[in-house]
Amino acid sequence: MPTMADVARHAGVSVATVSHVLNDTRPVLPRTRQAVLDAIEELGYTPNTLARSLVTSRTRSIGLAVSAISNPGFTELLQGVEAAALEHGYSLLIADSHDDPEHERDVGRLLHERRVDGMIVAPSANPGGLLAYLTRHRVPTVLLDRIVDTPADGSPRFDQVCAENTGPMARLVTHLAGLGHRRIALVAGLPGLSTTAERITGYRHGLASAGLPCDERLLVHGDSESAGAERATAALLSLALPPTALVTGNNAMTLGALRALRAQGLAVPDDIALCCFDDFAWADLFSPRLTAIAQPSKDIGAQAVRVLLDRLAAPDRPARTVRLPCAFVHRTSCGCADRAERPHGPPNPTAANGPSSARSESSERGTTP
Fold this sequence. Notes:
Layout: H1 4-11, H2 15-23, H3 30-43, H4 49-56, E1 61-66, H5 72-87, E2 91-96, H6 101-113, E3 118-121, H7 128-136, E4 141-144, E5 159-163, H8 166-178, E6 184-188, H9 194-209, E7 219-221, H10 226-237, E8 245-248, H11 251-263, E9 273-277, E10 291-294, H12 297-313, E11 321-324, E12 327-329, H13 349-352, H14 361-365
Parallel strand pairs: 1-2, 1-3, 3-4, 4-5, 5-11, 6-7, 6-8, 8-9, 9-10
Antiparallel strand pairs: 10-12
């Protein structure tokens, strides 16, 4: 196996120069750098990353701690993180925090003990233990997707990268209200998460913008997972005046809501309209096709890596929060006609969301009791 000395002889430079090229520890003339890189390529030299980390105090690795890695939303975030990390020459160590505060803290400690250069974390609803550890050990950290409250002075303690939540959720609600719905329900996520709180705020804003009261019985929690959403949706459907339209707070809860609707024999959108926050790959394959808010998940992951690298390059820079915009994906589960078939002019709410034979007009559009 070729050594650094072999590379130096082949390139006609010193071993120290090869080290500076590999570790970026001192400027090297472009033609000299290229000679070293050519020698590395021709000889098939593989740097000793452990030895390099001892020289640079960097392992060129990033720790990634997220919950529910199997969740499609987090899968896309992970893809964005991995692609950006590899682009910049970093590897990933990935751990599932299971949204459990104690496990989350242990995961953070274990990643730190493996000498990662920095961490990207999607915090749980109660991340105090982990954040205290990261602060105490001055671990460069970016919070991903979910953010934490800022101190009283208004400056964040950690760099944070997430999507816009409030405005896009309000857009779903006002769209449904524009179709004539007056009883619009929300299946919200796990209490304590910033995404949950912001989407609830958006829901309330949407109702207010449409001139609708907020009936607290129509706001339920599905705890960000399918089974919880199935239970929450069933509870909504058991109300004396059930909702005529439903918004789900993430893609996992959308699946749970659909199961509950199927169990009740209800058709979307004929019996109840449905919109979801979080688009996913097969949303366009459902019948009807799901109207959704699409988050730029891969871009969020990639941006988190770039923010972390900025932090590593300038440890004392002020922390910042970066929010990326979402897109409204207009399909047919809301009750609108397919875009390819939709006539010109505004949709007809009665035709698009006509009552089923099992419900009267008053209960279909429902006034707040």
